[in-house]
Structure formats: structure tokens, C-alpha cells
């Protein structure tokens, strides 16, 4: 069984529509794929309607969090998308994305970069606007060669010249909200130092004590040393270990299924969840 538990669609900052994502996941030989768009569940219905036979969909979201001044992402799986408290928090984070992007554009304009809101909005295509859409605009304008090159201190990285903070959920509160909605929490790419400052292991231990279920270990932004260290930490703290592509379509080079989660861990995630259940494909449109 091949299980990829971290993928994005055009509902946030991926380039595949939800329907394309599930069809491409099946074509890539996956048995299970998770749709984890940033702070939104708006891609669920389209993904379910198009779900091919033989592929199972795990519904989820990647929640924007911040602790002690460090940004981090929490993967939430199989929660009730209509649970009021978690829904309200997701909307609060999502509603802050537009003014944040507009403020980043203003900073870029002050740096003589001729990016416009209309340009970024076109790239987002109605999805939840984020830094990757601004980064893609910089690529299209020839300012940087790749999206990754936009995430530096010169441009959009945390603390960079065009960086703007947004509302982010306290991760301890995120765990409480996700658990209250019947979901399961996994800390996404916790050692991705290339993205900026990372959360110390002492904080991960505190999150584990607060109910964190697992950490994402096998990820493109983790080298072998980081994976070994994280596996040891997970064993010490009793956390599940997941692996995922963090697929964004053509916005990143990583392929669906490049990193996967062990079937036993997937089974434990589904066992712990009470807010929703995996959706088996029956041959979608």
C-alpha cells in the first residue's frame, strides 16, 4: 500500500485542481492520498466527486501556526470540517491572507518589483492566496528563477525584505481545536531549516504532551541526518512517523508518492480519528 498524506490543490497553492490531483495520484500508483490545502477544505467535494476506483481519499488541511515567533504547519487529518470552533479559526487565518498578500506586493513595489495584486490573484485562481502565489509572480516577472529562490531573506522568507506576518494559530490551540473536531494532528516538516527558523525539540516534546499525534519525517526538505534525528525523537516521545510528498503540482519539483507513510501508521491515524472517515474511490467523473 502506497500512502501520501500531504498534497495541495488549486484550493490553496497547488497547480492541480482537486479532481486532477486525485486522478494524478491514481496514475502515480498511490492507494491513499490526503488533500491538505492550507487552512481550507473547499477542495473536498470536487476531489470526492472525481475519486477514481481503487484510490482512497483522506480529507485534511495544513494549518498555519506560530509558536515563540516561529512559523510552523500542522497537518490535521479526518476532522469534522463543519465543527464550529475549528471552522472559525480556519476562516480567521484564511481571511488574513488577502491583506497580507497585498502588503507583500506593496513592499515589493517599494523594491521596484512591478508585481500587481491582479497578477497574484490570477495565479491563485480563486484559491487561498499565499506566499507561493507571490513567489510564482516573481518567477513570471523574471525576478527569480524558481519559486524556491523567492523564499530567501532577499524576498519572501520569514524576516525577508518583502515578508509580512499573518494571523497564525498557536499550535497548542490548534491541537485542542483539531482534537475537538475529531481529528488527528501531525507536525509538518519540523526540521525544514531552509524555510527559516525551526521549532526546538523541547517544544515538540511539549506539543506531544498536549496531544500531538505525529511528526512528518520523510520529506523533501529533510536530509538523512534530520530524518534519523526525528525518528529518534518520535520514538522517545511516542509519536507516529509519517512521510509525504508535500506535492504542489508544477509549483514544486517533487512528485506524488516521492515520500510515503507506512500502512500501519496510516491505519493508526484512521483508528484515532472520529471526525471523518477516509473516502474510498468508486470511479469518479
Helix content: 25-40%
- How many whole angstroms does the radius of gyration measure? 18 Å
Contiguous helical run count: 11
Number of strands: 8
Strand content: 15-25%
Look at the structure and give the mean pLDDT: 94
Sheet with most strands: 8 strands, mixed
Descriptors:
single chain; 285 residues; alpha/beta; eight-stranded mixed sheet
Summarize the structure.
The protein is an alpha/beta fold and 285 residues long.
What does this structure look like?
The chain is an alpha/beta fold and 285 residues long. It has helices at 18-27, 44-49, 84-95, 97-110, 117-124, 131-140, 147-150, 171-180, 201-209, 224-237, 263-272; strands at residues 3-7, 32-35, 56-67, 70-77, 184-187, 214-218, 240-243, 279-280. Strands 1, 2, 3, 4, 5, 6, 7 and 8 form an eight-stranded mixed β-sheet that branches. Strand 1, helix 1 (18-27) and strand 2 (32-35) form a beta-alpha-beta unit. Helix 5 crosses helix 6 (131-140). The longest helix has 14 residues, at 97-110. The protein is globular. The two termini are 24 Å apart.
Topology:
Layout: E1 3-7, H1 18-27, E2 32-35, H2 44-49, E3 56-67, E4 70-77, H3 84-95, H4 97-110, H5 117-124, H6 131-140, H7 147-150, H8 171-180, E5 184-187, H9 201-209, E6 214-218, H10 224-237, E7 240-243, H11 263-272, E8 279-280
Parallel strand pairs: 1-2, 2-3, 5-6, 6-7
Antiparallel strand pairs: 3-4, 3-8, 4-5
Helix pairs in contact: 5-6
Amino acid at each position: 500500500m502506497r500512502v501520501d498524506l500531504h498534497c495541495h490543490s488549486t484550493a490553496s497553492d497547488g497547480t492541480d485542481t482537486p479532481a486532477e490531483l486525485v486522478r494524478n495520484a491514481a496514475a502515480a500508483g498511490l492507494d491513499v492520498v490526503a488533500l491538505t490545502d492550507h487552512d481550507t477544505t473547499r477542495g473536498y467535494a470536487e476531489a470526492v466527486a472525481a475519486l477514481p476506483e481503487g484510490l482512497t481519499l483522506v480529507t485534511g488541511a495544513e494549518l498555519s501556526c506560530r509558536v515563540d515567533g516561529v512559523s510552523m504547519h500542522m497537518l490535521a487529518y479526518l476532522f469534522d470540517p463543519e465543527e464550529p470552533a475549528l471552522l472559525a479559526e480556519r476562516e480567521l487565518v484564511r481571511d488574513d491572507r488577502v491583506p497580507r498578500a497585498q502588503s507583500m506586493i506593496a513592499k515589493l513595489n517599494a523594491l521596484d518589483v512591478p508585481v500587481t495584486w491582479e497578477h497574484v490573484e490570477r495565479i491563485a485562481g480563486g484559491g487561498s492566496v499565499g506566499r507561493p502565489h507571490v513567489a510564482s509572480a516573481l518567477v513570471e516577472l523574471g525576478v527569480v528563477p524558481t519559486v524556491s529562490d523567492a523564499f530567501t531573506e532577499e524576498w519572501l522568507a520569514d524576516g525577508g525584505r518583502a515578508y509580512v506576518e499573518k494571523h497564525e494559530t498557536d499550535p497548542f490551540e490548534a491541537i485542542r481545536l483539531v482534537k475537538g473536531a475529531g481529528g488527528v494532528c501531525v507536525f509538518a516538516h519540523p526540521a525544514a531549516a531552509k524555510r527559516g527558523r525551526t521549532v526546538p525539540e523541547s517544544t515538540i516534546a511539549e506539543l506531544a504532551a498536549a496531544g500531538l499525534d505525529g511528526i512528518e519525517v520523510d520529506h523533501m526538505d529533510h536530509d538523512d541526518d534530520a530524518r534519523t534525528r526525528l525518528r529518534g525523537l518520535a520514538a522517545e516521545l511516542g509519536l507516529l512517523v509519517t512521510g509525504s510528498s508535500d506535492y504542489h503540482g508544477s509549483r514544486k519539483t517533487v512528485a506524488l508518492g516521492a515520500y510515503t507513510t507506512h500502512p500501519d501508521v496510516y491505519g493508526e491515524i484512521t483508528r484515532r480519528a472520529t471526525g471523518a472517515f477516509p473516502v474510498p474511490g468508486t470511479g469518479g467523473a
